[in-house]
Task: structure prediction
Amino acid sequence: MSDKFDVIVIGGGPAGYHAAIRAAQLGLKTACIDAWSGKDGKQALGGTCLNVGCIPSKALLDSSKQFYNIAHNLPVHGIMVENAKVDMATFIGRKDKIVKQFTGGIEQLFKANKITSFFGTGKLLKGNQVEISGNDGAKQTITATNVILASGSVPIELPFAKFDGKHIIDNAGALDIAAVPRRLGVIGAGVIGLELGSVWNRLGAKVTIIEALPDFLGTADADIAKVAQREFKKQGLDIKLNAKLSKAEVKKDGVHLTYADKDGEQQLIVDKLLVAVGRRAYTAGLLADDTGVKLDERGRIVVDEHCHTGVDGVWAVGDAVRGPMLAHKGFEEGMAVAEWIAGKAGHVNYDTIPWVIYTEPEIAWAGKTEKQLKEEGVPYKVGSFPFAAIGRAVAMNEAVGQVKMIAHAETDRILGVHMVGPGVSELIAECVVAMEFKGSSEDMARIIHAHPTLSEAVHEAALSVDKRAIHKGN
Ligand code: FAD
Ligand code: NAD
Result:
């Protein structure tokens, strides 16, 4: 086997494996190097997303939702279940099985696409050479015309609450708790804090979330965040805003937290503490000193709008570069770079990346919030529609939340859609399509939506932009 490739991808997470598969589809001789090992010590492709991120978190969210519904939703339907219990080994084991199925699936896809897969750590050397330190200790060097860096991200650690894997845990730890903790502390009311906090809250843990900022979910539209905050409170999540943690001490009876809020210094004891204060780009050992690849002030690999590093033939994608840390953003960048390398027209539209938070109710949005449009001085009009008036949502006993559509005041072009409610993780897709095609709220209002479905909330929100929603006063 020749050691010269057309493309070498370092990192087999969502960004890297998409880049590798697309490059191979385009006839490029491709290698991918990834260092992740699963619980069995064997290579586990798919990065953070498949191993300790998107997929395992959704598996536990779905399992915990089933359990929560037994007490909180089924009785409304007239179905009474007594003494329901969670078998934790099955609960965690099901998640592990799903992870294995999908990481193994990427391995099969690599084989089917004739991608040479290396299990180890890749280091970019000058001249597009890559040194591989195998997980078995062996070293070798391979070269390529193009190298795509897709090394991903890792959780940010707080200096006064360092991860110990047992009492103070990160996302990986929070996906592998063997018994439901009586009291779970969470630092950060961001996406991970809310999703994984919800999992353990639904199983009976007393969950307290400590968030430094005064506003809840500041990146979401304020109306949507307000509804979500109210619903999470009803579910028992205790979210403390404007609260600054200063100490986390592991003692015999739990983790002792000291934080300050508007009422002064507070103490809290929890059995486990999940620290979820964001993630940082991971580039440790990735770059030799003389490659010319630059990092920005936040440690991210510097790239232009085409994910090019400025060094001939070196590209970077996914969480390791600027932009939101989302798997689907990495997917698109990976595929686009492979297409640019092959001389084709790759494409990533950063303006229509959807965001989804998989809590109950779900939260989803794409495009601009009202706050952003105000700051930018863009004239806009707003339509909204509550799920309380959607027959399907009421039939499901999930009639909470709303869809809010924002369109340009003059052109009517859809500028943003913001949702909180049942199934909005799926509903956002049609709004992204409309926005990608530069659609207007009138376009959406004229599109036939099946009755009775949750998607009627999108239709009615579009009608409401023009004050002609049918099932509510305008
Ligand atoms: P990663 O997935 O981090 O993959 C990078 C890979 O590169 C890893 O396998 C790593 O071992 C490997 N690597 C790094 N350096 C080297 C090296 N030098 N040599 C060889 N290999 C190397 N996003 C969503 O869109 N939806 C979600 O629902 C969602 N849920 C999430 C839930 C959690 C709990 C977490 C933590 C994240 C979640 N994310 C979600 C974010 C998503 O997981 C990331 O955006 C995504 O995984 C980034 O992909 P990536 O390929 O850039 O990096
Ligand atoms: P995040 O940026 O979503 O939230 C971190 C939160 O912690 C913020 O609200 C921040 O204000 C707060 N914070 C920061 N420092 C703090 C401190 N010292 N004390 C208290 N609060 C503090 O980050 P995350 O939840 O760790 O998630 C990391 C990334 O993973 C996100 O950027 C997200 O893109 C991705 N992710 C996505 C999904 C999804 O798409 N559904 C799910 C999970 C994770």
